[in-house]
Amino acid sequence: MEPEISEQRTLASVVYDSTRKVTRRERFLQKMDRVIPWATLIALVEPNT
Fold this sequence. Notes:
The chain is an all-alpha fold. The chain is 59% helix and 0% strand. It contains three helices and no strands. The protein has helices at 11-19, 24-35, 38-45. The longest helix has 12 residues, at 24-35. The two termini are 35 Å apart. The mean pLDDT is 85.
């Protein structure tokens, strides 16, 4: 079994991640995470699976 090699990030990728524009999709998903009570919904659906 080979040891896992963690991917080393370059300075450019770190700068890009910190300065890139947040997309509408990302904003939408962040808002959904704040608004929807996921734990409650999962608890309702889980017994039926």
